[in-house]
Amino acid sequence: MLLERFLWAKADEVARLRQQERKGALPVPFSGQRGDFIAALQRREAGVPLTVIAEFKQASPSRGPICRSLTVEEAARQYVAAGAGALSILTERRFFAGELDFLGRAAACCPGTPLLRKDFIFDPLQVRATAATPAAALLLIVALTPDAALLRRLREQAESLGMQAVVEVCGKKDLVLARESGARIIQVNARDLDTLRVDRHACLELARQCPPERGEIWIAASAMDRRDHLEEAARAGFSAALVGTALMQDGQPGAALRRLLRGREEGHHAA
After folding, report:
1. N or C, fewer C-beta in 10 Å, the chain?
2. How far, in Å, CA of 239 to CA of 252, rounded?
3. This prediction's pTM
4. Is 32 inside any structural domain?
5. Residue 212 to residue 210: CA distance in whole angstroms
6. Which pLDDT tens digit goes with each residue over 134-184?
7. What's the structural domain count of the chain?
8. CATH number at residue 227
9. In which domain, by residue range, is 54 found?
10. 8 A C-beta contact, residue 54 and residue 81
11. Rounded Cα–Cα distance for residues 85 and 117 (Å)
């Protein structure tokens, strides 16, 4: 199963962190200023349906290589100039060609922009390692950690270290666990992580059937690649959308983000 492969892909990282812990050599938490992730998600720009979290993504299991011609610095600068509210940075190496140091590099060229570490995180030591970077938030995926108590522990640990936790769900069962864990930021992924099948309408329907509760902030992820998709998500109750492949695939992420935010004003929809 693909989820098992994702867990296997992180085994070496977790083992290395445990070895560092035994030696008392875990990385020290970042002492600089992290961007305000929640404020970024709640901010509304005039004429924009919702906040876009623009993603630096060089490859994926479903697409293979997407864009290897841009550095994280180049993409981050383009995204911020084009109106991204926050940045998602893939740090998983085996499937997404990511690196943990992408976070520090993006922060150095775009200070103050909130960064989300997107990876397969399921161990407290991974949260500790994330805290050593300038990340303002990290991703927790219910399908990888289908245990409300563990999700709560990881979320609370992240918050105690000055970060937010985005808890990702793919359906009602996941949503129940996310809410039981006390999740405040809920990301609904239209892509099933086990089959990689995408159903954007199911993502929207979940928000309509189980609308965001008081204090929750919802993010729509995957298949949000046109202006009207953003508008539909906003009407369904989402505060933000995370977009990666549609922005990166042509090697001009800034221009693609402008088209996405403005719809047909710049000639055509992002694809």
Report:
1. N
2. 25
3. 0.94
4. no
5. 7
6. 999 999 999 999 999 999 999 999 999 999 999 999 999 999 999 999 999
7. 1
8. 3.20.20.70
9. 2-26+37-263
10. no
11. 15
